[in-house]
Amino acid sequence: MRHTVLDTFQRPLKDLRLSVTDRCNFRCRYCMPEEIFGPDYSFLAKDKILSFEEMERLTSIFVSLGVTKVRITGGEPLLRKDLPNLIQRLSAIDGVKDLAITTNGSLLKKFARELRDAGLSRVTVSLDSLNEKRFSELNGNRGNVKKVLDGIEAATEVGLKVKINMVVQRGKNDEDIVPMAKYFKEKKHILRFIEYMDVGNSNGWKMEEVATKKDILDKINQVMPLQPIEPNYVGEVATRYQYSDDHQEIGIISSVTDSFCSTCSRARVSAEGKLYTCLFATKGVDLRSLLRTEQSNEVVAKTVSDIWNHRVDRYSDERTSDRDVRKNEKVEMSHIGG
Ligand code: SAM
Ligand code: SF4
Ligand code: SF4
After folding, report:
1. N or C: which end of the chain has fewer CB within 10 A?
2. β-sheet bridge partners, residue 161
3. Ligand 1 atom nearest to 198, measured from its CA
């Protein structure tokens, strides 16, 4: 039987973001800066990471509590060995209506077909610039644009729906807004611009470096006029727009200047099985130990629903009204995957 579980602000639990690894082959400065995530950084040991069986079981439990959308993330999820096997398991769960992954795209060409065959229908690819030099600077000299574009092409060819995410930082890649918009307008992929966020404790975030929703819209509107369109559903994170001429859609995820906590229905589980009820949470609750001490599904479900019932998170709303809130210790983005 499926329940609806509500938090203290009556927000239902509907989405699960499942991180499958804390490792990544990129070192994007806003997420895993090289000087912190260097050769001495200790990533999770293999036995600390949830197995596919454990992830499948946990996902079924979340589905019994009302989750219908599942997103696989990381770290870089395509680094996890046999990921298509997990996709196959999760897509077979009755009640998972939407299964997607978020990837940096570097290995997508290799895996696109296998992922599609395993039951995946959607993929979100992160790409912050079409300029090789700037892209390389942004990702710690690890990835190249061509590989990511080849990955996008391969995914499209096998029939996966593709969206593109671009994090925009003022002075770093805001000059790429219009070239990216033009390129993906032509390719007919939905491009979503993300305001640079103060996630984790290591990216040295400053408000001055945020290219705001307004900055982004102004830049695009000057060359390709846009008009707003209605959200697809309540709680959609991106505000939608379309170009006036061909109606191709874009989105803006404005968690800094126009936050959307009031409809946030997302739970996050890290690769080691900790449950976080907010992207900016300080602490997670260990679900792995419940799974590994042979607790029943009912006990795990009760733990999750109790946590959700007590959920009070609305960090982005609070940050907008009071900047001091930022002093908290926060979980790293590479642990819970955005
Ligand atoms: N490695 C995969 C990728 O990059 O798509 C999945 C994990 S990554 C943490 C998920 C998303 O979070 C990416 O789209 C990334 O650009 C975004 N992200 C990471 N750090 C961010 C930050 N400080 N502000 C805004 N978005 C961020
Ligand atoms: Fe890796 Fe994604 Fe973080 Fe970049 S944003 S460092 S690709 S996990
Ligand atoms: Fe959800 Fe937390 Fe982001 Fe607000 S700040 S939208 S509660 S994840």
Report:
1. N
2. 122
3. 23
Ligand 3 site, residue 13, Cβ cutoff 6 A: no
Model confidence at 326, pLDDT cuts 50, 70, 90, reads: low
Confidence band for 216, pLDDT divided at 50, 70 and 90: very high
3-state secondary structure 121-167: CEEEEECCCCCHHHHHHHCCCCCCHHHHHHHHHHHHHCCCEEEEEEE
Per-residue pLDDT of 183-208, as tens digits, reads 999 999 999 999 999 888 888 899 99
- The number of the ligand 2 atom at minimal distance from the alpha carbon of 75 is 8
**Ligand 3 and 107: CB distance under 6 A:** no
Domain range for residue 222? Answer: 15-336
Q: What is the CATH number of the domain that holds 323?
A: 3.20.20.70
Q: pLDDT tens-digit profile of 122-176?
A: 999 999 999 999 999 999 999 999 999 999 999 999 999 999 999 999 999 999 9
Q: What single string gives the DSSP state of each residue in 209-247? A: GBPPHHHHHHHHHHHS-EEE---SSTT-SSEEEEETTT-
Q: How many domains, the chain?
A: 1
Per-residue pLDDT, averaged over 19-26, amounts to 98
Q: Tell me, yes or no, whether 6 lies in a domain.
A: no
Residue 1 falls inside a structural domain: no
- CA distances (Å), origin 243, targets 46, 218, 240, 308: 46, 13, 10, 39
Find out whether the beta carbon of 74 lies less than 6 Å from any atom of ligand 2.
yes
